[in-house]
Amino acid sequence: VQLVESGGGLVQSGGSLRLSCAASGFTSSFYHMNWSRQAPGKGRELVATVSSSGDSTTYADSVKGRFTISRDNAKNQVYLQMNSLKPEDTAVYYCHAYNRVYHYWGQGTQVTVSS
What we know:
seven-stranded mixed beta sheet; four-stranded antiparallel beta sheet; 0% helix; globular
């Protein structure tokens, strides 16, 4: 079982990035998925969640209107489109798959937004 994040990097304030999370070893369509982040010296923050079917999403107030979570169950992938990035979005972003029994985490991808 593996979740592998990609797409992080360094971007200027106001820029965009698209994170991807590839799931393997399990059928991700049976799991809700979310993205969370952790900035240096801070706790982990839940950023966005998408239901197993993809028809329901929720967002943290801090990213509403700027970030979009989506998934492609045929490809076992979940995405986070991040627009209008701000320096305070700088963090390690983690992908998480969960249902009532199991939880799987990725290793994270670094996003750095320069001012």
